[in-house]
Amino acid sequence: RFGPGYRSAACCRAEGAQGPASGAVRGRPSAMPRIRTLTTKKPPEGWDDVAPQLEEFHQQMRDAVNEPHEGKRRNEATWPITRIHYERSRYVYELYYKKKAISRELYDWLLREKYADAALIAKWKKPGYEYLCSLSAIDKRNSNFGTTSMCRVPLHLRKPGACLPSVTTGCISCASQEAGRLGGPIWWDSPRPADLVGWAKAGCPTADKAGKKRKEAPGGEDAELEARAAALRRGPNVREAEAAELEALSSALRGGDAAPKAAVSDDGASEAAAGSDDDADITGDEKEEEAPAKGD
Q: 10 Å Cβ neighbour count for 57?
């Protein structure tokens, strides 16, 4: 009486207990491209060159979907699907944008037929998202605290210790520098250095490239004060006076050790007495002495 497509709540619960369906969870990639029928538009020129590799991805996706998931957590069953979806989309993306091996017509046709994820490729064109593993990694609705996935945090900013993969995608890191050095995201089963955090802090060295030097982040109380000052300047209610006070305090903490050393010259004479007018303006000593004279 409910129609041929009706399924009871008990049936839905039973299917959910058997395992997650690919593409049914919000933010997860669809498993397969569109099925080609007699009415499907004929593929453009160049399809025969890319068809074997896309067919291989298609078979890998089928195997990943049908793989038994006994002994795995619920989310681990979808990790291979996410990875194959990334690799298939990356293959089409590099053919068109990097290698210039296919035409625009064929590229658009592959996107329409779901051989690649157009939304994910659009993210790869933006700075900082060049190797984004999945759209679910930046979907804040999928996390308990309304944040992006842990794999989006650069490794050199993490605490030392074991780097676990993201629960939703199986990706350890898809930050631009780390993923760029290894040719793609660092997945749960990717070959990688034993100490990922130490490797990232050393500049991500590889066999072909030396480590890239990073700017040393300020530490201690002055870094915290600068962060608080920057937060005061953001948002609708900007508190510039409080931010300036915090920056002045941060500068005093950072330069407190250097001031006494610069006050005395090599021959023991005081530089404040023999200083120029510019030095006096910075320190403010002469202004304090001239103030009573003006009052007289």
A: 19
